[in-house]
Amino acid sequence: MNEIITARGSLLIAGVTIDGATVDIAVDEKGTIAAIGKDAKKTIDADIVIDGSDRIAVPGLVNTHTHAAMSLLRGYADDMILQDWLSQKIWPLEAHLTGDDVYAGTRFACLEMIKSGTVAFNDMYFFMDRAAAAVDDMGMRATLAYGFIDLGMEEKREAEIKATETLVAHVRSLDNPRIRVAVGPHSVYTVSPEGLRWCAEYAAEQEIGIHVHLSETEKEVVDCVARFGKRPAYLLDDCGCLTPRTVAAHCCWLDEAECRLLAERGVTASHNPASNMKLAVNRAMPYHWLKAAGANVSLGTDGCSSNNNLDLMEEMKFAALLQKFAWNSPTLLPAGEAIEMATAAGARALGTGPGTLTVGAPADIVLLDARAVCNTPLFHADSNAVYACNGGAVMTVLCQGRVLMHEREVPGEEEIVREAAAAARSLVDRAQDSS
Amino acid sequence: MNEIITARGSLLIAGVTIDGATVDIAVDEKGTIAAIGKDAKKTIDADIVIDGSDRIAVPGLVNTHTHAAMSLLRGYADDMILQDWLSQKIWPLEAHLTGDDVYAGTRFACLEMIKSGTVAFNDMYFFMDRAAAAVDDMGMRATLAYGFIDLGMEEKREAEIKATETLVAHVRSLDNPRIRVAVGPHSVYTVSPEGLRWCAEYAAEQEIGIHVHLSETEKEVVDCVARFGKRPAYLLDDCGCLTPRTVAAHCCWLDEAECRLLAERGVTASHNPASNMKLAVNRAMPYHWLKAAGANVSLGTDGCSSNNNLDLMEEMKFAALLQKFAWNSPTLLPAGEAIEMATAAGARALGTGPGTLTVGAPADIVLLDARAVCNTPLFHADSNAVYACNGGAVMTVLCQGRVLMHEREVPGEEEIVREAAAAARSLVDRAQDSS
């Protein structure tokens, strides 16, 4: 294995390109960026030196909406009507999921995210204690939420409350600054107002985040209005779920007033363009309204079964192109804003720092190959990163100063892939045996 | 260099996966698939053996609409209104293009296409004799058209006719079965009916293809109706340009009758989803109408300045997702049809064989990494290829039985990238000096 991956200590990235200039980046033992510039090397006595020539440094990417362990369901079923896909394919398989599956699937998802430049993610699923173990092993950051679904049933709600409290206690007990916990009320169509209210109060009391699906489909909006007399964002707001600690995924069918409401409450809207296109939700997130209102808009891949990958570099292209196409404006969401979405906006959402390459920020750093085909010619690095490259251009990934990948090598990759394949096969076998 | 790349002769791909079965593929000295199956190895005494374990074989991809040398303009200007982008950025730069630039840019484009699994492409640009030299050097197949633009001026038309005739004579003189020539009337808004008629007659006389842009924007349709009293497809038909040898790019704004007309004439419609989204053309190709009419629908990346890459694996995902989103149907353009678009439909369009892995077909073969993250788990290879993978999963590429890439190694890659970067820099410098 490359010794740069196994070494620990302070670190210097020498002669790397940032915004067209060649600089050094010094990272101290705590994993904080200590200096950036031509003289940065003088500020530390680096234990590790990474050659930054032919490399472009960008902040580590942040995936603000996924269901990581669903990597095991990649390609299991596609090209179906949403309801058939869920009821005939996804749910019957998920009924057989074990904690071991979630560990294998989350570890595999972390591998995929690291290989495409992601350092932190916002996750919602089940067996999240095992997801935490996987994140810990892989050295990434994550905010983990148990998917809270009460379907309006009090008994189920009590069980979900317990599951949520158990996860929060577990993650707190880990005392790992890279791993955070959030409350995960699934959506207004799967959680009762009572459940939503409990989630909001508990999140406030615990000072933790809220991770929720919002206005993914038109049906969600229509049903919500029919049932509660108000649109989903207003229902969430009534229940106290719209806070600066809230990440609302999808947000396709928000109207303009709801966009203003999200901005006023400090909510982050997570754009998930590939999933929205694949599932044909028939409307792209109104980014222009959210932007005009000053909302924080971040980027997410959604789970592997509705994307079908976790490559946030690719997702930036889908975001920038979908916004242009859906809202009929070739100038909407230019490359620089797409990168901001995938970095700083995500970091703000998850509270993992500024999400920029600045002194004092956590050293969450991605090095892209400046000699890659997709980076040639190199007129505008932002344009190439968004429109031409995918995760394959990512060469090195640092999270809090620790090297998770170097020259595309991630420790244990073969074993992680093999175990994910075995877990997926076993899951399908068990589901078929029982049917 | 890997000896499998330099070796010449008959070839065996041993133990490779096709449609879930493990088989051998035997390729004879002429580059034709001689046998496929468990006993294929017995049919030839192979000079070269490629280990197919952990590899999935698919037909080589065919890119049916691009402007290859525009790889030099990748990322030069983005996120602009189409007319500003062309008049302020692209055209001023193109005015300084030389034959050497086109050679460097096309060779670089070939490298990018090979690295993402493309074996053949349909090109339209200038200095196409130099493009032919690049294609020859790189071992790919291409159909080359000079972009014919008369703007209604007779003098210009005469010059375009001469340029077209010169290119046709040049390509014929090469006598290279991998390199074909076509007539390239740019579009109904840049070529007069007289010019279109000449193109159609000359193509018929020479028995060569026609490569044209069709109904990319609403403005094109509106202007055509105002000027000629008919929609673009009907104007092209009146001029004789709709033939089984015709590839019409974009086709976003076709109405249902035009889709039937294209099908009746045997025209191939080339879908270019990423370009259409990036330039915000406001309507996706009506694939459902073309499919219902029985038209041949293929896939293309368009040029690098409006995509911004030539990765047809990525383009399959854009096609499958854009169709679902734009026409509000999660079942439209399933994975298998996206692969058909990128392989067999393209091969039919360019006359390069069936575009399938079948005995007697040219050995245009791509080997994908079955152990890649994007191919794990491997429930459905088609789904993974379209929705999860990009060109990075392509390990080996054969064109007419010749190995163009093996284990991601392409001969001369570093030099080709370096020369493209230098050519792009020099082009911009010359343009700036003259402004």
TrEMBL record, chains A, B:
EC class of the enzyme, as a word: hydrolase
The reactions it catalyses are: S-adenosyl-L-homocysteine + H2O + H(+) = S-inosyl-L-homocysteine + NH4(+); 5'-deoxyadenosine + H2O + H(+) = 5'-deoxyinosine + NH4(+); adenosine + H2O + H(+) = inosine + NH4(+); S-methyl-5'-thioadenosine + H2O + H(+) = S-methyl-5'-thioinosine + NH4(+)
Required co-factor(s) are: Zn(2+)
Show the Pfam families listed in the entry.
Amidohydro_1
Q: Which UniProt keywords apply?
A: Hydrolase, Metal-binding, Zinc
Annotated pathway: Amino-acid biosynthesis; S-adenosyl-L-methionine biosynthesis
Task: Give the EC number(s) listed in the UniProt record.
Answer: 3.5.4.41, 3.5.4.31, 3.5.4.4, 3.5.4.28
Identify its protein family: Belongs to the metallo-dependent hydrolases superfamily. MTA/SAH deaminase family.
The free-text function statement in the UniProt record for this protein reads: Catalyzes the deamination of three SAM-derived enzymatic products, namely 5'-deoxyadenosine, S-adenosyl-L-homocysteine, and 5'-methylthioadenosine, to produce the inosine analogs. Can also deaminate adenosine. The preferred substrate for this enzyme is 5'-deoxyadenosine, but all these substrates are efficiently deaminated. Likely functions in a S-adenosyl-L-methionine (SAM) recycling pathway from S-adenosyl-L-homocysteine (SAH) produced from SAM-dependent methylation reactions.
Report the protein name in the record: 5'-deoxyadenosine deaminase
